[in-house]
Amino acid sequence: MSVKLVREGEEYYEIGPKRLRLPAGALMILETEQPVIGGIRDQAAGLCLSLPPDASGARHSAGSAGWETGFVLRAEDTRLGLALQDLCDRALKGSGDADLPEGFGRWAEAHLLALTQHYALTAPLLGGAKAATGADRVNRASHARVFLADNRHRSVKLTEVAREVGVSPFQLARTFAAAFGETPMGFHRRLRLEAARAELRRGLSVTETSARLGFGSVRAFGRAYAAFFGCPPSEEPRGG
């Protein structure tokens, strides 16, 4: 079983008939015997963690979790992803010890086992006559989550996200909400507004923040911000 983190740039993988784009911040978990072809765009940086296939029970759940063709999720959504990001950052900065801490492999195996069991149990709840169908739907919804996070700087339509992950807009909306407890567009809106708040608190003006996050106008941004946070962006504390 392999875990791939992309920290900077973009990477592309072909796993059997499936083609995956991994932007910065993406984590891919893979358990497959199929040929894997990879590539990068511009410069990319990341980490790859390989675990013995028989080191834990994760392999037994991987098939039902749909990881044979690569399961893509946001690194920040998992403790393993956050830990790998920290290791990668230390290596890129050349500071500290970038080697794996003692016992990290066993901890990673336990974490992967918990993830595989979670998604293996989630997949049947999303419909489909076969378990593989539910697993594929979870995989595509998770990939959509990565795509939305990577495009938080602009407006995105559900049809675009659905096209990116290869399902109908209706199926994506249904599966995404069932798997993550919010709609794809609700998730994307929350990420954009949380990013906007961070920019404002760093001292960016309302106009600059609106433009940087791709809102159609300052007025539209102000309405969305007030509806989400309960106050207009102009009242957000600056420089904190």
TrEMBL record:
It comes from Parvularcula maris. Residues 142-239 form the HTH araC/xylS-type domain. One of its GO terms (molecular function) is DNA-binding transcription factor activity. Signal peptide: none annotated. This is Helix-turn-helix transcriptional regulator. Keywords: DNA-binding, Transcription, Transcription regulation.
